[in-house]
């Protein structure tokens, strides 16, 4: 009888142990980043494209017809400076509703992190055309005369110009290059986005927002009547994009 009782107790303990052996006690966590988009308070998806319905800080009415951008170098940093860099990069393509969610193959240890970072675009160590055949196949590379490497973002659409005509714009972000002298001069225009502190206890999903309106407003009020096309070789325009991009991304929630 005691033997049977012992077996029953062991079975119950085993079942309870199995029942609690779930994601609540992981020591290594998978993380997913979902990229959401808005124009100030209005949600933006590709179903909102191709219609003049947004007004930028300069008072110009515009539409979006294309939006895709690159994020890379996702990094979790502890308060003592220890970092965990996750493999991979992601070309977010809102136009085709692809890659709006990205789960790196690398896991991270659970615990508290003082910063969660990612790079908008590629840093200089990664920004070489020969590195990524898949990006070359998506027409993402930059011509050699503009320094090579890759786009950071392609944002396109139409706006109402001062003749009330719908005119196309192409707000393309790359590494800034000055071709006015005997040699090319570059300025870094990739930037690091800091999503702030987080404590990871489980597999986690980060809901990241891009406020598209910010590309046109802060600190540089963008005048589409002046800056609408041929922006890739425009050194000053690329620096302005870099400056405006500092307030574009934010973290909404972390679900665990």
TrEMBL record:
<dbReference type="InterPro" id="IPR046863">
    <property type="entry name" value="MbnP-like_dom"/>
</dbReference>
<dbReference type="Pfam" id="PF20243">
    <property type="entry name" value="MbnP"/>
</dbReference>
<feature type="domain" description="Copper-binding protein MbnP-like">
    <location>
        <begin position="29"/>
        <end position="224"/>
    </location>
</feature>
<protein>
    <recommendedName>
        <fullName>Copper-binding protein MbnP-like domain-containing protein</fullName>
    </recommendedName>
</protein>
């Amino acid at each position: 009888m005691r033997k049977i009782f012992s077996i029953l107790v062991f079975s119950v303990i085993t079942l309870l142990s199995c029942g609690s052996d779930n994601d609540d006690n992981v020591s290594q966590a998978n993380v997913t980043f979902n990229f959401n988009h808005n124009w100030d308070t209005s949600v933006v998806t590709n179903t909102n494209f191709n219609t003049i319905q947004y007004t930028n800080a300069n008072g110009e009415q515009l539409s979006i017809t294309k939006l895709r951008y690159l994020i890379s170098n996702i990094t979790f940093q502890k308060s003592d400076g220890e970092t965990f860099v996750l493999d991979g990069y992601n070309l977010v393509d809102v136009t085709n509703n692809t890659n709006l969610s990205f789960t790196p193959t690398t896991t991270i240890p659970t615990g508290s992190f003082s910063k969660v970072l990612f790079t908008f675009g590629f840093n200089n160590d990664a920004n070489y055309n020969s590195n990524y055949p898949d990006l070359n196949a998506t027409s993402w590379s930059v011509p050699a005369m503009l320094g090579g490497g890759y786009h950071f973002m392609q944002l396109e659409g139409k706006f109402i110009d001062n003749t009330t005509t719908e005119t196309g714009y192409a707000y393309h972000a790359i590494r800034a290059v000055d071709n006015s002298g005997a040699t090319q001069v570059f300025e870094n225009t990739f930037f690091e986005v800091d999503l702030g502190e987080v404590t990871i206890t489980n597999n986690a999903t980060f809901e990241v927002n891009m406020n598209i309106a910010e590309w046109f407003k802060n600190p540089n009020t963008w005048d589409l009547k002046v800056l609408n096309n041929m922006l890739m070789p425009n050194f000053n325009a690329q620096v302005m994009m870099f400056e405006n991009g500092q307030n574009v991304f934010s973290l909404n929630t972390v679900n665990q």
